[in-house]
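for the writeup, i need someone to sanity check this before i put it in the appendix. the sequnce is what the collaborator sent (i think, or maybe the updated version? ugh). structure was predicted straight from it, no edits. if anything looks off just tell me and ill rerun, i have time this weekend
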Amino acid sequence: MLPKLQSVQTYFDSDAGRYGDQRYPEDPKTCEQFSYLVRRRYVLDMLGRGAPKPGRVLDLGCGPGVYTKDLLDRGWQLWGVDIAPKMLKVAQGRTEGRPGAGFAVGQTTKLPFASASFDAVVCIGVLAYVESEQQTIREIARMLKPGGCAVIQIMNFWAPIRAEYRLRWEVGKRLRKGPPDEEDKLREQVRLAAQVPGPFTRLCTHEGFKVHERRFYDFRMPGLAYLWPGGGLALGRAFEPVGDQTWLGWWGAGFLTRLEKVRG
């Protein structure tokens, strides 16, 4: 395994036990938590519009299974794939012994399934970490049947919050007194990749997809979300409805797109 991917696996294995509780609480206290919750709703809604009749779905980068229960409840037969084995153990626990779910360790650029195995693919919180964005999109296209639906998320390159992330990382690195934790080690090894939404959707089109739906989400204001979480949450809630209007929502930290495979 490449050193970058090994760092990603080590970090997410270390985060498996607390990932869901930290990011998906019932009552969000920060804009970041709210954005994770609203992103899950958007993804499920997009999937429902793109594939109204449930079939086989691949949750690529499934983590601890934050979509598992919802997908099973909607009648999908689910395969979850992740690079981190400990994440998959948590995901398996979410099935509660229910049929219709399977899990496998795998990488996005070489998946252990035959071509045209799935009616839908969701790929959320993944492309920032992969070794090749184009090969990952190509592999998602290979997994889908013609006419199949893909819902994919990227980090928005233009989001103002990115500048705050970089600044806080550089300052924190210089002020750190103790040994680095697993997140510090990940950031030292892996520079998270943000994509420009326009070129990204053109890449998807080049790989045989038709774009049906796009929206921004996660409207964190630099400084505010960190210094005044309650104010940041209120602002994030206020701006969330404009995410489907590109000229207003362009500063959202995340971007979702719903695609249809149009080539065999």
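The chain is about 45% helix and 20% strand. The mean pLDDT is 90.
thx in advance!!
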